[in-house]
Amino acid sequence: MSRRWHTLALAGALTLVLVVGCSSATSNTSKSSGKLTEVRSGNFATIVAAPENPDNPTTQEKVELGKMLFFDPRLSGSGAISCASCHNLALGGTDRLQFSRGHDFQETGRNAPTVLNAAFFQNQFWDGRAQGLEEQAGGPIQAPGEMNMPADKAVERIKSIQGYHEYFKKAFPNEEDPITFENITKAIAAFERTLITPNDALDRYLRGDKNALSPQAIRGMETFDSIGCTSCHAGPALSSGAMMKFDYGTDLGKASWTGNPQDEKFFRVQTLRNVSLTGPYFHDGSAETLEEAVTTMARVQLGVTLTDQQRDDIVAFLKSLVGEMPDISVPVLPAN
Fold first, then answer.
1. 3 contacts 204 by C-beta, under 8 angstroms
2. Phi and psi based region of residue 35 (left: phi greater than 0; alpha: psi -120 to 50; beta: remaining)
3. Is residue 146 among the annotated active site residues?
4. C-alpha triplet 6, 8, 13: angle, nearest 5°
5. CA-CA-CA-CA torsion sign (197, 202, 208, 213)
6. Which of the 8 DSSP states describes residue 52?
7. Rounded-to-integer distance, Cα 296 and Cα 314, Å
């Protein structure tokens, strides 16, 4: 049975709706989550709508404004860098560079994690220094090595663009002065909550289409589970979102901002949804291929030396995790 996903504006919110469904296998359990149904089998589950932030409810007007701000380079000190520069939605929500480049072409020293499905995580950034999308959205804008735009200067610049005023009034209708840095980050976060990628081969398989995964991918999924990968990479996002120790490379991870030696080499567990689109891999972008990343993770995290067959099977499974991309058109931005 064919399936299509649409993004619809319902009651002022963007909601993902499954238009044509399929019954799941009887061994699976399911539960409702908004307009999507989670189907779970063991450690695997279909992706569902992103959780809402009650302090920043999603509205169509807020999402529209957030999309503009996400693509607007005028939020950077140079006027040349936007959120989309490092989180290119045409490149799996990343820039596919080993290290992202910020203000004056400085290397940030870390690989850009994908913005796709980032709404499922409370810990944001590789080192977990931000909590939730709203806090995350404000970090790169202000960071000197990234967008290099202090919060007060960002507000000043956006206020100077007359075309933005009406959009902020619609997105935050009960505020006398809606153009604030907090509202800039709230709007961007609201847009990012729509960047969910459902209906990959794993989702279709869990919903009952047993031909969605190839025999090799099914073997890879079983190996992935049996050797312990699902201790961190499970559930709808194929990630716990927790901070876990990965003793690899020289980056201090969470300790780089806490200063606590006990936090050294702790990094957020990354989502594996769309992982074949988001290389190079790891916080330092040192693994160029999925084969290399899988081999290293099995050895370092699990103490397992994979056979070539096991590695190739797991890679086949990971390559099946490309979901349907959000249908995002680049917005026309208000003139200066």
1. yes
2. alpha
3. yes
4. 135
5. positive
6. P
7. 13
Question: Of the residues 146, 156, 176, 222, which is catalytic?
Answer: 146
Which of 93, 92, 3 is closest to 39 using CA atoms? 3
DSSP string, 147-171: T---HHHHHHHHHT-HHHHHHHHHH
Q: For residue 125, give the DSSP letter.
A: S
Q: List the single range of 14-18, 192-196, 255-259, 267-271 with lowest mean pLDDT.
A: 14-18
pLDDT digit string, tens, across residues 190-222: 999 999 999 999 999 999 999 999 999 999 999
User: What is the average pLDDT value for the chain, to the nearest integer?
Assistant: 89
The 36-41 sheet, strands edge to edge: 29-33, 36-41, 44-45
Structure tokens at 13: 């919110």
Do 307 and 314 form a contact (C-beta atoms < 8 A)? no
Instruction: Please state, in angstroms and rounded to a whole number, the distance separating the CA atoms of residues 149 and 233.
Output: 35
Output the pTM of the full model: 0.87
Q: What angle, 0 to 180 degrees and rounded to 10, lies between the N-to-C axes of helices 290-302 and 308-319?
A: 110
- Summarised one tens digit per residue, pLDDT across range 158-195 is 999 999 999 999 999 999 999 999 999 999 999 999 99
State the amino acid at position 220 in one-letter form. Answer: G
Which DSSP state fits 332? Answer: P
